Amino acid sequence: RDEKRLYVANYYAGSVGVLDATRGNLLNVFPLGKQPAPDAARRGEIYFHDATRCYQHWHSCATCHLDGGRVDGLPWDFLRDGIDNGKDVISLVNLLHTPPYNRLATRPNARYCIESGVAVSHQVTPDPAEVDDLLAYVGSLTAEINPNLPKFAEAAQRGRALFEGKADCVSCHPGPYFTDKRTHNVGVTSANEPNARYDTPSLVEAYRTAPYFHDGRAATLRDALTKHDTEGLHGNLRKLNPSEIDDLIAYVLAL
Q1: What whole-number distance in Å separates Cα of residue 202 and Cα of residue 204?
Q2: How far is CA 77 from the centre of its chain?
Q3: First to last CA, the chain
Q4: How many whole angstroms separate alpha carbon 82 and alpha carbon 196?
């Protein structure tokens, strides 16, 4: 009550730290009893959030894949595929079920994707056991309850019929993960990658993965389906009227 102490839950250590609220220095640590030995997924979660595993200790996997493996909404320009062609961060939910990986689909399996991702972004080579743990953690990430379901329920029902029928979205985004695991050109070209063939993204939890497309050029789903589809390559969207596009967006936001 005197605002002189901060009590902080140390999630990964199973303890509570006491800090001086003015100076920020650690005063004490209280263990919360004997902690169970971490399984592979728990060890992977700890690695995922540990910036000391990175060269120079300045970022972790969770820096970009925050909120439990989701996205930070920023394009990152890794030099392995050239310069000035940043790629939007992908969600890791259901990752083990949606190969191949990265926006250009150059990573054939999840192990290689994680191992090479750590090596390139962290500038360290992970041990095989560490990759096993990261795979276990990523494999534990599943979709959460969608808060949009009550809001979009009625429109989403109409949108689903369009998604599976008139709009023909289902050809490239079939369930249950809403990706055909192939690359397509939907007209989002760039000077450094003129063939414009990119991996079909999963639409699971699309409501929390903005911005959209490989480089994050579309701030909203509406922009993705209208503003950035000038060639009409994205399904049969040109056959939809504005009201139908509203319903289609409601369905995708409810996935």
Answers
A1: 6
A2: 16
A3: 44
A4: 15
